Amino acid sequence: MFFLIARSLVFGIALSLAGPAQAQAPATVPPERVKQLFELLDDPSVKAWMAEQRKQDAGSTGAPAAAGASPAASSDAVAAPGQMNTMASSTLDRIKHHIERIVRTLPLLPGQFARVRAETMEDMSGRRPAGVLLLIAMFIAAGVALTWATYRLTRPFRLWIIAQPKDTPIGRAKKIGGRTLYSSLLIVSFALGSAGAFMLFDWPMLIREIVLTFLMAAVVTAGVRMYLAAMLVPSFMQVENAVEVRALPITNEMADHWFYWLPRIVGVFAFFGAAFILLPGLGIDQDGMLVLSVGADSALLLLFLLAVWRRPRTQREGAHQAGHTGATWFLTAYFVVLFLLRIAGLPILFWFTFAAFFLPLTIVLTQRGVNFVLRPGSEDAGRPTIPAVTIAVIDRAIRMILILAAAYVLARVWGLNMQSMQDSNTTTTLILRGLINVVVIALAADFGWSIIKALIERKLGIETPHAEIGDEEMPIVDPQQARLRTLLPIIQNILLAVIVVMAVLMILASMGIEIGPLIAGAGVVGVAVGFGAQTLVKDVISGVFFLLDDAFRVGEYITAGRYVGTVESFSLRSVKLRHHRGSLFTIPFGELGAVQNQSRDWVTDKFNITVGYDTDIDFARKLIKRIGLELAEDPEFKPWVLSPIKMQGVQEFGEYGIVLRVKVTTRPGGAFGMKRKFYVRIRQVFKEQGIELPFPTVHVEGLQNPHGAENAPVEITPELKLAVAQSHTNRRRKKTSTTE
Question: Coiled-coil regions in this chain (predicted)?
């Protein structure tokens, strides 16, 4: 790579310093005073003063601009007053004059280069260009040597970077940060070894400027290459699982491609930038620089097109040939348009077109990179995660910095600064000031909303461990989590509306629009809507008071009038209840009425057990208590039990046994499964202890014989006994439930 840079530098300096062998000096050399006059007319400050004088003269007398200005000055001047040119025609005139300058200056370049070469050789005290190139090559080699020494001495740091885990977001961030820091260290080493070593000696001023400028171009190229290696991790680095530790989610082929082309594009750009910094001081005028910029733009366009057409297909484009071809042609057309805008001399339109593509591209790549690097860890590492609010802050902060930097660059291209915008009251300045305020307010609103949204999503994503239960029982609802799931979605919607309204009002105020009448009008409209939609207002206000009273939360089982179900979600107007049979009710808050919450705090369940009249009641009480304690210690029911099953006493003397009252206190939903198991255990223990669980029996007498024989008993079959007993049991259950 450094040999490529050195070769480019040799070619560039030879082009700029050595004129063509057959280039002849102009036929007639103008006198010294005429030459000074032309140089004075080419001065930008003189051009600006002459244009201002023409405007003042035209405004006071209405006379056209004075003749005698230089061609360059006339090409940059605006149309004369009284000439009603439209914006399109004036733009076409500027393009025409710009191209004429290029065509007119092209034949004069050999003479300028010959003059530059003569003056340069005189200033360098006879030192030939080959000696300058040798100096540049020597100091580049010194930078490479110091970089290699730094690479050898920092082996422990490289091993630390390699040892960082790739399965966790923190580990991946440390890897990328470590590689970036290591690349910065190598860049500093290269700069110290090349430019720093050159500064240790005394050199003629011209040689000093030339060598330092091109050394800085080499440092920039080497820095871009090292930073790309840290981010893209190309194949030559032989990093294991390189796809997982990159800063972007791209394939190996894509990483190798852009690592190959981007440093070359930046290297050529840096070389031309260094040459354009030096050439004006060596005697090349603005028109000559304009012609040279056409050649530089052509070389950069060729490199961009080669990089675009040779790029590999992405995973998304792999299955669609048309998508890859379409993207390639779009990029080709885009770069050609940029090139034409440069040739036409429309810098403002060029930079706006440049930002319109590369700014969104940079934002998208940054967002993908942040989400890719900070993605959750693997299962083997326990899936560690980075808080969503941290990811949102990083993403939005980078986006805000990129947009503000782009706005600053575009403002500088337009020739604006904040001080002049504050002092000026022209229409264009007012519009630009309003646009800048709109961008700043929108960015601030987006940044604040992203943080609020991330915090709310983080709170909603909390999972509270609870005991495993059957499908028919209600789950344990953590009170804090249920409260958050109830209120946070509503708060999120309210905050979004508040941020949007405040941002719109601030934008309107920054554009000079009076927002006081708008707020008053909105209040009047709100009152009218309130009178016209009383039911809606009733629902919203009722919902607010239900939430303030904490009557129910998401996940709780409630009864409201004829509606029963589990609360699933809220809106500002209604609540959604899921019935245990699957039906979903959407109920306006105004129709709820009294709410019975069956999932709050604790539940006491009371039920009856019937034993025979000859049963020892005290012994039965001890057995019930023992079974209740056993179930309370059962891991399946222990998280649910607040007070174990115990006997309260004798409820009544029934028709066929003594009725015992039993109660248990559990968390909501916890008594169902335990009650079933209690019945199984109590029957088993009572049977072992000889305690009778009576059931109704029926003795039937006095029925008529089917054959007409009087006083003959009817045969009682088992089916008849079972039917009569079942009927009696059903009547008994209905009576018990009614008394409770």
Answer: none
Name residue, tokens 């249920």: 482
Query: How far is residue 667 CA from its own chain's centroid?
Result: 42
Of the candidates 568, 661, 658, the one whose C-alpha atom is nearest the C-alpha of residue 616 is 658
pLDDT tens, residue by residue, 303-347: 999 999 998 887 665 556 677 888 899 999 999 999 998 888 888
Q: Phi-psi category of 82—alpha, beta or left, where left has phi over 0 and alpha has psi -120 to 50? A: left
Classify the phi-psi angles of 223: left when phi > 0, otherwise alpha if psi is within -120 to 50, otherwise beta.
alpha
Amino acid (1-letter code) at residue 125: S
Q: What is d(CA 529, CA 541) in angstroms, rounded to the nearest whole number? A: 14
Number of helices (H), then strands (E), belonging to the chain: the values are 25, 8
Task: HSE, CB side, 13 Å, CA atoms: give it for residue 415.
Answer: 3
Residue 143 near residue 194 (C-beta atoms within 8 A) = yes
How high is the pLDDT of residue 81?
43
- Give the phi and the psi of residue 733 in degrees, each rounded to 5: -65, -40
Q: Tell me the pLDDT of the chain averaged across its residues.
A: 75
Neighbour-count burial of 731, counting CB atoms closer than 10 A to its CB (0-12 exposed, 13-18 middle, 19+ buried): exposed
Query: Would you say 306 and 298 are in contact if contact means Cβ atoms under 8 Å apart?
Result: no
Q: What is the 3-state secondary structure (H, E, C) of 614-673?
A: CCCHHHHHHHHHHHHHHHHHCCCCCCCEEEEEEEEEEEEECCCCEEEEEEEEECCCCHHH
CB atoms within 10 A of CB 12: 19
Place of tokens 């002092």: 423
CA dihedral sign, ordered 141, 144, 150, 154: negative
* Residue keyed to tokens 């009544």: 652
d(CA 624, CA 18): 111
**Matching residue, tokens 């620089």:** 289
Per-residue DSSP letter, 557:
E
pLDDT in tens, 546-584: 877 778 777 788 888 888 888 888 777 788 888 888 888
DSSP string, 180-196: HHHHHHHHHHHHIIIII
3-state class of 312 per DSSP? Answer: coil
CA dihedral 196, 201, 206, 212 (to 10 degrees): -10
Q: Is the dihedral of CA 462, 463, 464, 470 positive or negative?
A: positive
CB count in 10 Å sphere of residue 455: 16
Q: Give residue 511's pLDDT band: very low, low, confident or very high (50, 70, 90).
A: confident
The side-by-side arrangement of strands in the sheet containing 603-611 is 603-611, 658-666, 641-653
Using H for helix, E for strand and C for coil, what is the string for 457-518? HHHHCCCCCCCCCCCCCCCCCCHHHHHHHHHHHHHHHHHHHHHHHHHHHHHHHHCCCCCHHH
Instruction: Let me know: does 201 contact 240? Beta carbons within 8 Å.
Output: no
Helix spans in 18-128 (H):
32-42, 44-61, 71-76, 87-105, 109-123
Of the candidates 668, 565, 653, the residue with the CA atom closest to the CA atom of residue 613: 653
In DSSP terms, 604 is beta-bridged to 665
Q: Scanning the structure block, which residue is given the tokens 């290269």?
A: 190
Torsion, CA 35, CA 36, CA 37, CA 40, rounded to 10: 130
Taking CA 394 as the corner, what is the angle to CA 178 and CA 166, rounded to the nearest 5 degrees? 40
- The sign of the torsion formed by the CA atoms of 223, 226, 229, 230 equals negative
**Nearest-angstrom CA–CA distance, 648 and 617:** 12
**Other Cβ atoms closer than 10 A to 281:** 12
